[in-house]
Predict the 3D structure of the following.
Amino acid sequence: MALAIKEACEGLEEGGEPVGSVVARDGLVLGRGRNRLRQNGDPTAHAEMEAYRDAACRLSQSGDVEGIEPGLHGATVFTTAMPCEMCSGAILRFRADRVGGCRGQRPIRRQGPRPCWSVRA
């Protein structure tokens, strides 16, 4: 979570929104990102999406030819803000197991035949 907060602070220093995200699995950081909407003029440059893009790049460079496509089973997405609908969809699509934030980690509970989720209290 400290790395996600650091990403958020760096984003704020760049003139962007103070939101940071980190994707980690088995104690290893797979990807990190921060909101870059203002910096890049890209409406999809949310912190979680940037962290996923970074994870995909790192996985493909490490020789994992499938990259992020098979999913991130066992991974936790740490984020300093509640994920929006787009980022929530990416979290579900790439199958992260948990979402962690300033209030702690929560498992994702998938419900029904379509990809909707809720956080257990």
